TrEMBL record:
The protein, known as: Hpt domain-containing protein
Domain HPt as annotated: residue spans: 41-111
Domain of life of the source: Bacteria
InterPro entries tied to this protein: HPT_dom_sf (IPR036641), Sig_transdc_His_kin_Hpt_dom (IPR008207)
One Pfam match: Hpt
Organism of this sequence: Candidatus Egerieimonas intestinavium
Origin organism lineage: Bacteria, Bacillati, Bacillota, Clostridia, Lachnospirales
GO biological processes: phosphorelay signal transduction system
Amino acid sequence: MKDERKNILEEAGISVEEALERFMGSETLLEKFLTKFLADPNFEILQTAIKSGDQEAALKASHTLKGVCGNLAMKQLYEKFSDQVSYMRSGNWDEAAEEMAELEGLYEKVCEAIKMTNF
């Protein structure tokens, strides 16, 4: 992977080397899954579920995103989704909803970085 692309992704909170390890060193495979991340509907589902109070849909979407972000080595997003899932599972829905402001910022940062790399 070109250094410029790697730097853009790293600055957005993606540990490229760690992600590449998970993809057996295949940059092509990593690029494919980063591109798929942009099309994943779960963040929009999460936003809608939080706003409407649909706790089941919110937990499912947040948990799914936690797993995806973990596999793609999106460290900051993974940690924030982990926090949110913990809040949800313990019934602290207000705290889970409060996580959305920071999650939205981190999510947008990662999406922009992926778009900037022009995979």
